[in-house]
User: Which sequence fits this backbone?
């Protein structure tokens, strides 16, 4: 089969190579799936660079999220059969940027019928992360103001839709007019182009000085520090990641004086510590998709042959909406 492999670490376009490899065999608890749709995520970029917390041995195939058709199951797998369309995480080193990939049966879920392959392949990580961040960690309530950074990105775009579905007023921060259009299409009530506006001023103006009740921050660094200037009394800042490249330190005296909470979110821990909650979340998300309230905005669909350039555009911050790999297109 054809698969993209990383044999040395560096920028995606320089280190990804399309090669012919043996089709992997599923272990006892695993599935072998034909990849029908795979999302490009920032962890894929970090893996190529060797900067992700998971550092697979070289060579490996990235692609952490997919929609696939089951073609074989391990000896201990039950309840999933050949031909089922499933979504979930891949088992690195046999990732989703290939014709076939491996998945763990325990974290494979029925693909929502309301979503096509590209959308379904982009539905697992971002929307699960958003759901746990907004509902389990921040306890977002209807009528509250939600500030979402990187609102046109993978996890940010999901948070915009989930915030709207929860009845919040959503302010989305993006970089550039094209991404601003994406945030509006996703349903953000107010869109801030950080290249021309200061989001702190906009948030204060839009909330009559109160500030945002919840901040959803996958960027970190200076974005986090400025968010503390527009967080409401008893507000909650959800730390999702550090796509901006800087892991900031928190001034805890400021959190004390302003009476806000700083909440860390490592969604992947829930798959091991509370798998029932992950499955319940999937059921809720599937219902929201069926109702037309959430759906990944896939702005670009690329063939398997175009993976390296697509992941590099994600690394460079020039992608708009979600980028999905659809083999055979």
Assistant:
């Amino acid at each position: 089969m054809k698969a993209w492999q990383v044999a040395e670490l560096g920028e995606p376009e320089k280190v990804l190579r399309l090669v012919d490899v043996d089709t992997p065999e599923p272990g006892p608890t695993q599935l072998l799936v034909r990849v029908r749709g795979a999302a490009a995520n920032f962890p894929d970029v970090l893996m190529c660079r060797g900067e992700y917390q998971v550092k697979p041995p070289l060579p490996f195939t990235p692609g952490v999220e997919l929609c696939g058709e089951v073609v074989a199951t391990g000896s201990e797998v039950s309840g999933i059969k050949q031909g089922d369309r499933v979504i979930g995480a891949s088992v690195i080193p046999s990732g989703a940027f290939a014709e076939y990939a491996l998945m763990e049966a325990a974290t494979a879920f029925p693909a929502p019928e309301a979503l096509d392959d590209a959308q379904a392949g982009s539905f697992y990580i971002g929307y699960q992360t958003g759901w746990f961040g907004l509902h389990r960690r921040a306890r977002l309530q209807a009528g509250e103001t939600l500030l979402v950074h990187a609102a046109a990105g993978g996890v940010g775009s999901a948070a915009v839709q989930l915030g709207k579905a929860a009845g919040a007023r959503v302010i989305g921060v993006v970089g550039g007019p094209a991404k601003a259009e994406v945030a509006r299409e996703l349903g953000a009530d107010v869109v801030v182009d950080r290249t021309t506006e200061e989001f702190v001023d906009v948030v204060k103006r839009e909330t009559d000085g109160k500030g945002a009740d919840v901040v959803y921050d996958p960027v970190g660094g200076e974005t986090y520090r400025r968010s503390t200037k527009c967080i409401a009394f008893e507000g909650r800042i959800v730390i999702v990641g550090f796509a901006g490249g800087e892991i900031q330190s928190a001034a805890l005296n400021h959190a004390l004086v302003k009476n806000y909470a700083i909440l860390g979110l490592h969604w992947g821990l829930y798959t091991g510590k509370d798998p029932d909650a992950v499955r319940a979340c999937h059921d809720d998300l599937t219902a929201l998709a069926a109702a037309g309230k959430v759906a990944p905005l896939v702005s670009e669909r690329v063939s398997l042959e175009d993976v390296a350039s697509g992941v590099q555009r994600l690394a460079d911050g020039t992608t708009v909406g979600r980028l999905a790999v659809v083999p055979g297109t």
